[in-house]
Amino acid sequence: MSETLLDIKNLHVWFKVYGGVLKVLNGVNFNVKIGEKVGLVGEAGCGKTTTMKALLRVLPNLALIPEGDIFVRGKNILKLNSRELADLRGRGLSMIFQDPTSALNPVFTIGQQLDDIIKYSAGSSGQKVANKKNIALSALHEARLPDPERMLDSYPIQLSGGMRQRVCIAFAIATARDLLIADEPTTNLDVTIQDQVLRLIKDLVEKKGASLILITHSLGLARETTERVYVMYAGNMIEMAATSLLFKKPFHPYTQGLLASVPRLSGGGFAEGIPGRIPNYRNPPPGCRFAPRCPYAFAPCTKAMPPLIDVDDGHQVACYLYQNGQEDRRNA
Ligand code: SF4
């Protein structure tokens, strides 16, 4: 089995807001192996991006991490000083954001922005990067952008949405050696180019031997791109399995609801939704945070958060329905 690259343990993230505290991440456990492609799925507002921002240590100032650890290659990111953190980020961690327009600086050319990224990736050692222009051209070429020379002198406003997202991919691959985080990378693109962009990301991480975290609310994208999937709900990882296993036999009622919500082109009526909404993080329900929406909730669900338990080979679920001694109440 490959070595672990990223290991997030019991991560809690809170946000101080007017009149209280939002307890968003509620003990997240998440890991990625070297060279592995992992999906992180869940509906908007469930904490996917907050988890990744905590990993990159780019949470806003009003965020607190009262508990938890984030290890990258065995180093606890939360304990690094700013110089060590810059070295680690520059050498190995990159993120592609969902909105390429706001991810690019409109007043600098693509070449100037790539130049800075390549310099930054050298870390705090002050070591000069030779052939910065060649690295930039090669990254643009690998991102399949036409005429990379001309692209270096272009401003973001001169490019289409699809080209801007490819430029963001070029920024990420110019430096990424360990881990690429793609946060809903196709959300703002036309459907006609979504597939091309996703395939490009997949090909590039495979070629570089890097790991990928694909954050998405689309189960279809996770199914096409990843080897293992985590399902997140209201600040908790509630199910994790190999992608093929999860789609074949989802255990958690929320995952089952998500799969039932996918519209089918082959007919069969309207897709079902999941009634209700994500709880208010200021005052989340005690116990399982899905209980107010769960059709199978029973007494233990409102008392304590269910732990992740093994239900199949490498398949884990956080639900009292599958705890020892509890029969599956859906069949009761
Ligand atoms: Fe539903 Fe209870 Fe399972 Fe939560 S623990 S998903 S409320 S059955």
Question: How much is the average pLDDT?
Answer: 88
Please, how many helices? 11
Helix content: 25-40%
Briefly, what CATH class?
Answer: Alpha Beta
Shape annotation: globular
Any ligands, ions or cofactors bound here, and which? Answer: iron/sulfur cluster
Oligomerization category of the chains in this entry: single chain
Please give the structural blueprint.
Elements: E1 4-17, E2 20-33, E3 37-41, H1 48-56, E4 63-72, E5 75-76, H2 82-92, E6 93-96, H3 100-103, H4 110-121, H5 132-142, H6 148-152, H7 161-175, E7 179-183, H8 191-208, E8 211-216, H9 219-225, E9 228-233, E10 236-242, H10 243-248, H11 253-260, E11 309-312, E12 315-317
Parallel strand pairs: 3-8, 3-9, 6-7, 7-8
Antiparallel strand pairs: 1-2, 1-4, 4-5, 9-10, 10-12, 11-12
Bound molecules: iron/sulfur cluster.
Structure description:
By secondary structure, this protein is of the alpha/beta class. It has one domain (4-92, 176-331): Rossmann fold. The protein contains eleven helices and twelve strands. α4 (110-121) runs parallel beside α7. It binds iron/sulfur cluster. Iron/sulfur cluster (SF4) is lined by residues 252-253, 288, 290-291, 294, 296-297, 301, 306, 319-321.
Distinctive features:
globular, 12 strands, four-stranded antiparallel beta sheet, 24% strand, single chain, 11 helices, binds iron/sulfur cluster, alpha/beta, Rossmann fold, eight-stranded mixed beta sheet, 332 residues
Short recap of the structure:
The chain has a single domain, classed as 3-Layer(aba) Sandwich (Rossmann fold), CATH 3.40.50. It is built from eleven helices and twelve strands.
